[in-house]
From TrEMBL:
<keyword id="KW-0456">Lyase</keyword>
<comment type="pathway">
    <text>Amino-acid biosynthesis.</text>
</comment>
<dbReference type="InterPro" id="IPR029144">
    <property type="entry name" value="Thr_synth_N"/>
</dbReference>
<dbReference type="Pfam" id="PF24857">
    <property type="entry name" value="THR4_C"/>
</dbReference>
<dbReference type="GO" id="GO:0004795">
    <property type="term" value="F:threonine synthase activity"/>
</dbReference>
<dbReference type="InterPro" id="IPR037158">
    <property type="entry name" value="Thr_synth_N_sf"/>
</dbReference>
<keyword id="KW-0028">Amino-acid biosynthesis</keyword>
<dbReference type="InterPro" id="IPR051166">
    <property type="entry name" value="Threonine_Synthase"/>
</dbReference>
<dbReference type="Pfam" id="PF14821">
    <property type="entry name" value="Thr_synth_N"/>
</dbReference>
<dbReference type="InterPro" id="IPR036052">
    <property type="entry name" value="TrpB-like_PALP_sf"/>
</dbReference>
<comment type="similarity">
    <text>Belongs to the threonine synthase family.</text>
</comment>
<dbReference type="InterPro" id="IPR000634">
    <property type="entry name" value="Ser/Thr_deHydtase_PyrdxlP-BS"/>
</dbReference>
<protein>
    <recommendedName>
        <fullName>Threonine synthase</fullName>
        <ecNumber>4.2.3.1</ecNumber>
    </recommendedName>
</protein>
<keyword id="KW-0663">Pyridoxal phosphate</keyword>
<dbReference type="InterPro" id="IPR004450">
    <property type="entry name" value="Thr_synthase-like"/>
</dbReference>
<feature type="domain" description="Threonine synthase N-terminal">
    <location>
        <begin position="2"/>
        <end position="80"/>
    </location>
</feature>
Amino acid sequence: MRYVSTRGEAPSRDFQSVLLAGLAEDGGLFLPESWPEFSAAEWRALRGLPYPELAARVMAPFAEGSLDPATLLGMTRRAYAGFGHLATAPLVQIEPQLFALELFHGPTLAFKDMAMQLLGHLFDHVLAERGERVTIVGATSGDTGSAAIEACRDRAAIDVVILHPEGRTSEVQRRQMTTVLSPNIHNLAVQGSFDDCQDLVKAMFNDAPFRQEMQLSAVNSINWARIAAQVPYYVYAALALGAPDRPVAVSVPTGNFGNVLAAWVARRMGLPIERLVIGANRNDILTRFLAANDMSVQGVAPSLSPSMDIQVSSNFERLLFELLDRDPVATADTMRRFRADGRMPVPDAAWKQATTLFHGHAVSDEATLEEIRRLHRDSMYLADPHTAIGTAAARAHRPETGIPVIVAATAHPAKFPDAVEKATGIRPPLPPRLADLFAREERFTVLPNALEAVEAAVRGHARRNSR
Ligand SMILES: *Cc1c(COP(=O)(O)O)cnc(C)c1O
């Protein structure tokens, strides 16, 4: 399988090289040159497999020619062995035709572990094979950073530098990052928003000499391998609910558009997902796009679901490329104008096509609390604020045909205990493996929102990388 850039100016690459590169040299995102498709019989053959086996089988076409299936299976087995639930991603019914796909049983209690734990193994394997090292640089609104840190801590060939917006992550989220004192882990608290952090990371990648010198690599959701690793759980849930012989719908609380894009990929591979619902908080650029073709940047406002406090959803570029019939010139031009004007000029036909499949719903903080309260009252289900946005959006766009809706339950309620307690009166305890989190020592560096300062810090931390 070869990968092409959405902007068409970068050479095609294989899976390993896309994994290490993250972003393409032309600023675009990698996508498979063609989509693998599974027949109904091939989907049925995956029913009942343990999660790691199913994951390896679903991902195999993406790694074809780059990783053999047995190696991939070994990695999915090790990646999911440390999860706190034998089903890896249990599917829990919360109402008639409404199911929570619990993606938060990994080490950091959020769905990003599903992909990141596997990425740690993928990086290790590929770097060892090549005798190379990398500096992983990432921006996080909370959960990506801790997931990357947990996946890469103490790995010899990897340095990790994570930027988070100072004071804008929950305390649990911050501590999950800053209490990992491994020598290869470095946390930078940037005086700015998540989008500022994301811009700094992009700027470092666009600084070619710096990128080369540091052997920069990304594990945020622009990395194709992460999207690929998020496809299997939609397959797992859909098969459990009767696919491919019965269609399903999916509802995803969305920030960077990575998780919902993975559901789109599953559909593109032939899984009968009839509808994709996007849940947002007050940072509603995607729902405004779906409602009125208004993809315009407004300031980021903090909410009860901080992992979705994002105004520019980086992975949307991949869908845009598909909506524009894979025209890289049109994609690059649209992205350039978005960057310049803060408004994305999506052609009407492409927008209409998007709205036939995607449905958006924005949920206020008050409505999020009400939803958490309701789920607890009516189904004894404790949901975190992100998951509650997913169930609220699912309810707003329930398919008339009565097909089952899978909600991506993206965080453990104990990760956002204040909101859950406010809504239900119950303060969900951290699982035993994290019970002493608030007593652990923290380490991080506060920096201004300035590229020079951040590059200097990365250079300092990545010293072990320069030869
Ligand atoms: C990252 C995250 C999201 C948003 O996922 P995207 O892939 O960025 O759309 C939603 N909920 C939680 C808990 C997250 O950590």
